[in-house]
Write a structure and sequence with these properties.
The protein is α/β, with parallel strands linked by helices. It has 22 helices and 14 strands. A hairpin with a 3-residue loop joins strand 2 and strand 3. The structure holds adenosine-5'-diphosphate and zinc ion. The site of zinc ion has 7 residues, from helix 17.
Length: 651
Amino acid sequence: MDNEKKINKETNFSEEKKPTTLPEGYKPNWIYVLFIFLILFSIFSRTVSKPKEITWLTFEQTMLSAHDVAKIVVVNKAFAEIYIKKDRLSSVNYKDLPQGGYMAESNPHYTLQIGSVESFESKLQQAQQTFLPEERVEVAYQNRTDWIVVLSYILPFGLLVLFWMFMLRGIGRSPMGSGSIFNFGKSTAKLMDKDTKSTITFKDVAGLREAKREVEEIVDFLKNPKTYTKLGAKIPKGVMLVGPTGTGKTLMAKAVAGEAQVPFFSLSGSEFVEMFVGVGASRVRDLFKQAKEKAPSIIFIDEIDAVGRSRSKANAFQSNDERENTLNQLLTELDGFGTNTGVIVLAATNRADILDKALLRPGRFDRHIYLELPTKEERLEIFEVHLRPIKKAKDVDVKLLASLSPGFSGADIANICNEAALIAARKKKEAVEQEDFMEARDRIVGGLERKGKIISPKEKEIVAYHEAGHAVASWFLKNVDALVKVSIIPRGKSLGSAWYLPEEHQIVTKAKFIDLLCATLGGRAAEEIMFNEVSSGALDDLEKVTKQAYTMVAYYGLNDKIGPMSFYDSTGENERFLGKPYSENMAMIIDKEVQALIISSYNRTIELLLKHQNKLESLGQLLLKKEVVYLEDLEKILGKRIKEIPAHVRD
Ligand code: ADP
Ligand code: ZN
């Protein structure tokens, strides 16, 4: 039983990609260009245009003494620039200077560091008196800003700023790619306007009849608000859609917008809460402002539990002020706008129980609409909706598909249909056939088949008997769901799997719980019987068994010693306490009882398998040969099952 159900949610609606906030106007490219230019300039100016530096001695002995110096400019009291007389430049002393060009004309030819202006002046005066008593060299003083020095101060700082902007851009953009540094306090809500019409209507929402009926009222209000306000009626401002993931909450909200033909702002709760303090609150403010401007309109907040989690629940080490600020702002906004402004806030969550009670108070999200996993009939309808665009072969039996997918959500079904079409396309088929749908279903339940995965013959044998153990155990336990097939083809991360068809029921009896424990332990028990040795391969099974046993004992009150007590806490308040809601003594009893339950289940499974050891062996052998064993062969080896097998499984 390694088939854990995996769901890949596919909820990309291309029409909402358009951001409503600031245009993408802010292009920082010129900044990069400027900086690169400045860097190049500084390098260039250092290497090329900088005159050669000389010492006082050279200056005095070769230049001044030869009457070659035209003028001296003392710059910033730090160094002197020396200009050589034009007609003397041809002298051998200056052959290392670049000839011609601007260098020779107006720029200084040499520079000279001076200690201080005073000492330079006195030295110069002395030298002049010695070498050219009758001539005076012109000395000028200048104060200049040295751009290179300034740059060397600015550059690291500028790079820092640049880096910072990169960071901000990255963060501002992270949720959906529309952000930049300037709008990161703005709402990143996506808008589906009338112009970019939401094409989704109630036709696209299958099943969910009751939820649809409740939601229709909202559509009607958005379309004809007058008929309601005239009579003094108040329309709910906030509607909470509650249900497991993939049951169509987002779809429903979009359908409301599509039916009413009003702008639709959607934002996920997790997007409110980002790294920067205060961003969440300002996003909320901005979102409501935008929506009010466009009223009548719909705001849809997905995953509201990300912000709306009960405030008291923040545990002592991890209080999240940012989230609380955001939540407070949300509450303020909800209270702030009048009942009949024409803005309706829809929110979705799969955990209504952990939401802050303040959110659910009258005048806020006081309407709750529950979406459940679809029943068989509803699954049929959902299949039909998603089969519409698919070219299907004649052999496709939609009814059978619906009955073979218990526990699947609308999103899973949409996924199956798409996956089946992909599989058929890969096989270059003209139309999608029933087998493609079945393969798609298996893939969604168990992950991708990985036929190429290399396992040694010994490992394969272990896997075969392990799976045979699950199969045999569950076959002779009357409360376990119908076994459909057993396979040792690696799939996802599991090496083998037994496939069951779960029945649809809401409550589980104690006997069924125990049978399930035994079936799950069947793999490990078979390994022990066949090889007298156990392996690490039963990790998933053991994890499942342990968790299940704990819920039985501590939550469902199914243990005699503890009695009909439950330590389950639907309010989630207890998470706040670091300890458990029971004493150390009770904790010990629970641990002991859980262990006893698992060990007795394991012993029961061993007994059961020993009783049917020859069947276990032949099924293991057949699995090694065929890799997949279907119901027909299972019945041949194991005999008719005590538990009746639903008719549709036989197909
Ligand atoms: P949720 O918001 O509850 O997690 P979504 O609304 O995002 O679920 O559903 C995901 C997808 O599943 C939808 O885009 C749709 O294709 C499909 N789906 C879910 N429920 C239904 C339904 N009742 N009818 C038709 N399609 C559905
Ligand atoms: Zn197993």
